[in-house]
Structure formats: C-alpha cells, structure tokens
Write a structure and sequence with these properties.
Elements: H1 2-16, E1 22-25, H2 37-51, E2 55-58, H3 70-83, E3 87-90, H4 98-113, E4 136-140, E5 150-153, H5 158-166, H6 189-203, E6 209-213
Parallel strand pairs: 1-2, 3-4
Antiparallel strand pairs: 4-6, 5-6
Length: 227
C-alpha cells in the first residue's frame, strides 16, 4: 500500500493525461501486522483497478530482511527493462520502516545498472533484454516528515486516492477487527493522510499535493509551466 498512501494522486493525474502506469511491489508485505500476503494481493489488485493502472507485479523480495544484493538488483532491472518507464516513483529515501530507505537505494542502483550495456538480464518471458534507463526518479515521502523538493497538485484526485487506499481494508481502522494494532490502523490515520496532502498542497498554493524528493537537480525549458 506504499504507492496508494504516498503517490497515488500523482499516478491518477498522470493517467488522466494519457500516461500508462505500472506498479511494482517489491515484497508481498508478508510481515505486516494485520492481514496476510494473500489478502494483501487481493487488496492490491482492487486498488490497481480503482487507479486504472496498466499492470501490477510483485517481485516477492523478502519482506523486512532484503538487502542490496545482486539478485535483488537484477529482479528490479528485469522489471525496468520490461516496462521501460520514462519516470520511476520510488520509496522514501529515509523512513520509519527500514525497508523503505533500502528500497529507495535498491531502486536507484537498479535503474542505473539497467542502462548499462554489459549488464545482462532475461525478461519475464526468458528472452534476453535490451538496456533501458529511466529519465528521472522521484522519491515519494512516506511516514517520516521530509522536506519536499517537488510537490504535485493532486487536488482533483484526492477522493479517488482515498478510495484506492481504502481498498487495503485489512490495514486500517476496523472496530470489529480482533487483530493487533499497528501504526496505520488507528482511527485517525486516514485523516492524517488527507491532512498531510493538504499541507503539501498549501506549500504550492493548491488544496492537496504529494511531495517528492529528487536525487538530481530538476531542469525545465519553460519556467511558465512551474507553479
């Protein structure tokens, strides 16, 4: 649910402009306090339908314990070369959950390596792949408050974003649930998500926004298109 919580408004905006989006889940969330991997997969599928994405794939990297290994980098390289994205939205560079910062580094490394001619990989179909490197990586902001380098206006899409988040019903507040509580299962957590996006929006003079950090300087050839 990281994508839905942190950047699904941006995903919805891009799709509304004719872009195609695929979501790559690195883990199945098998260590999550509530629910289980099978249920999370069902919820992720439903969320993807709400967002209108082209595809969603899980790499089944070990939740909680993955490292920056060659094997894990090659898993992401395979996906990058398969989907050939122009832009990658990746996990927060630092966060309460240690997986998130590691994922950001893992994705950055894999995107770089995917562009090297001598790094060989086979696709999901077993065929050799051509190199591909995204033009940009933007890291969304998750639980930890980080100063955004870029904020995207998601005002028209906030309600649809919340609908996609709520597809992960096992993870959030349910007064009838007998499962253990978690940092995101409190009664006010979804209110916090909306308030956070309102705070980001305020920074650029709109109602709602999503914040990102960037690993390299942003460039433009049209200052009038910045807000």
């Amino acid at each position: 649910d990281d994508v839905e919580l942190s950047c699904s408004g941006t995903v919805l905006r891009e799709i509304s402009q004719g872009k195609k989006v695929a979501i790559l889940d690195l883990t199945a969330g098998e260590l999550g306090t509530r629910g289980n991997a099978e249920l999370r997969l069902e919820e992720a599928t439903m969320a993807g339908k709400i967002l209108g994405i082209e595809d969603r794939r899980c790499l089944h990297i070990e939740d909680g314990f993955f490292e920056l290994t060659k094997e894990n980098k090659l898993s992401i390289i395979r996906a990058v070369r398969h989907y050939q994205p122009e832009i990658v939205l990746a996990n927060a560079i630092e966060d309460r959950h240690p997986d998130h910062g590691r994922a950001a580094k893992l994705i950055y490394d894999a995107c770089f390596l995917a562009g090297l001619l001598k790094v060989q990989s086979t696709g999901f179909d077993g065929k050799n792949q051509d190199r591909w490197r995204p033009s940009a990586i933007y890291n969304y902001i998750q639980d930890k408050a980080i100063q955004a380098d870029l904020v995207v206006d998601i005002s028209p899409f906030i309600d649809k974003k919340m609908e996609a988040i709520k597809a992960f019903g096992s993870q959030f507040f349910n007064p009838e649930s007998n499962e253990a509580s978690s940092p995101i299962s409190g009664r006010d957590f979804l209110e916090y998500i909306r308030a956070r996006d309102k705070s980001f929006g305020r920074q650029i003079g709109v109602e709602y926004g999503e914040g990102f950090t960037v690993p390299r300087t942003i460039g433009t050839n049209d200052l009038s298109r910045l807000i």
